[in-house]
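Figure 3 (text version): structure tokens given as input.
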């Protein structure tokens, strides 16, 4: 429960508790806090049991920790029924990318060597401006439209 609290923080909390409540009232405060924590845990467990009963027998192995997305995904990836491990291990992204790159480069090489007559082999050169006869003409200005 207190995995994040180190020894220095624990000593600081104890010293502050002694200073705030005093050494004579501190045991009663600790008992009250522990009683409250116990009641909260009992309430939480009873709520979990009620939810499990309401869900029915098909959710008998339901764990509330599975509602955490990281836990859910980890559990699903470890599930042998789905075969996700085989899919994940069978898919090599570097190999797939290398195949696509080789295919694109071979297609570019074929297009470059197959068209020696000066045309671009069906490709469009985006660096050249279109040769349009009316490109210097602007549309008429309409003062009412602006």
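Below: residues designed for each position.
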């Amino acid at each position: 429960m207190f995995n994040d609290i180190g020894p220095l923080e624990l000593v600081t909390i104890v010293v502050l508790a002694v200073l705030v409540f005093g050494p004579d009232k501190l045991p009663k405060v600790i008992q009250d806090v522990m009683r409250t924590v116990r009641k909260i845990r009992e309430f939480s467990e009873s709520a979990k049991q009620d939810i499990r009963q309401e869900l029915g027998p098909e959710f008998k192995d339901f764990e509330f920790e599975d509602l955490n997305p990281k836990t859910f995904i980890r559990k699903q990836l470890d599930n042998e029924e789905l075969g996700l491990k085989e899919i994940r291990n069978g898919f090599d992204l570097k190999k797939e990318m290398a195949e696509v790159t080789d295919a694109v480069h071979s297609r570019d090489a074929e297009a470059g060597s197959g068209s020696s007559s000066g045309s671009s082999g069906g490709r469009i050169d985006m660096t050249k401006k279109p040769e349009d006869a009316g490109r210097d003409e602007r549309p008429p200005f309409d003062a009412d439209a602006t």
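The first helix runs from residue 7 to 55.
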